[in-house]
Amino acid sequence: MQAARQCSMCASRAAGGLLQSRTDILLLRTNMAALRRGAACLSFLRSSASVLFSNRKPTVRRLGKWADIVHTSIASLSVGGALCAVPFTQVAENLSHDSLIRRAASMVTDSTSTFLSQTTLALIDATTEYSKAVHTLIALQRRYLASLGKLTPAEEDSIWQVIIGQRAKLDDKLDECKRFESTWVNAVNLCEMAAEAAYISGAEQASITVRTNIQVAKSQVDEARKLSMDADKKLAETKVEEIQRMAEYASFLEKDSEEHEVHEAYLRED
């Protein structure tokens, strides 16, 4: 009886609630079916009891038979009550080894993609700062070359101090670029291995995503490297120009010194 009451309560709650999903409908149908089975068991028990107690002289065999029937009916009713009392839930997610491996491979690709994006950003920023430092040095050197012969020794020494400081800064930026580039190469290698592992484990979409990220990162780094190479090319041209101008200026000073000596010798002769 208690199990039947539980079935009735389950059915009333299911009928009174909002049936917003297919799971609720299936739950109501299952509970109603269990309720009908419980009612059938009760009806059978009543009929069995009436037959059992109507005969005043039952034999031991009939008592044993009816006892087995009653026990079977009560067991059936208990099972029906248990079905009503325990609500049905959604099917648990597949937790097979293959599924867990695919999930782990996807997590690895996400982590390596994050590592790649961070190292790419760091390398691009470092390369950009290096390019700016190169252009600053080029501007200082050209300014100095344009002022040859027009500066006082103090002004010339001041400009050279600035140029030397900028060259030291350029070396620091270059070392930073090399350090970030080494980390970026490791990140690319990790992403490639993660993509291969994801493909083998069956996570094709994760593999495609990380390979796309690799291509985008390489494209961005190539653009930054191109700007850096152009800056280095201009710096090399400026150095060649500096050498030529310094040689010309030295020749001019030497020639001027010879002319000055000749002029002094001529004056001494006079």
Radius of gyration: 46 Å
Largest sheet entry: none
Fraction of residues in helices?
A: over 70%
The run of helices and strands is: HHHHHH
Class by helix and strand content?
mainly alpha
The total beta strand count reads 0
- Mean pLDDT comes to 74
C-alpha end-to-end distance = 146 Å
Uncertain spans, ≥5 residues at pLDDT below 50?
1-27, 51-67, 69-92
Please tally the helical runs, counting DSSP H or I stretches of 4 or more residues.
6
Q: Please tell me what the overall shape is.
A: rod-shaped
Strand content: under 5%
What's this model, at a glance?
It is built from six helices and no strands. With 270 residues, the chain is mainly alpha-helical.
Describe the secondary structure blueprint for this structure.
Blueprint lengths: L1 H15 L5 H33 L5 H26 L11 H50 L6 H49 L2 H66 L1
Question: How would you explain this protein's 3D organization?
Answer:
This protein is mainly α and 270 residues long. 89% of the residues lie in helices and 0% in strands. The protein contains six helices and no strands. It has helices at residues 2-16, 22-54, 60-85, 97-146, 153-201, 204-269. Helix 1 runs antiparallel to helix 2 (22-54), helix 1 runs parallel beside helix 3 and helix 2 runs antiparallel to helix 3 (60-85). Residues 1-27, 51-67 and 69-92 have low confidence and may be disordered.
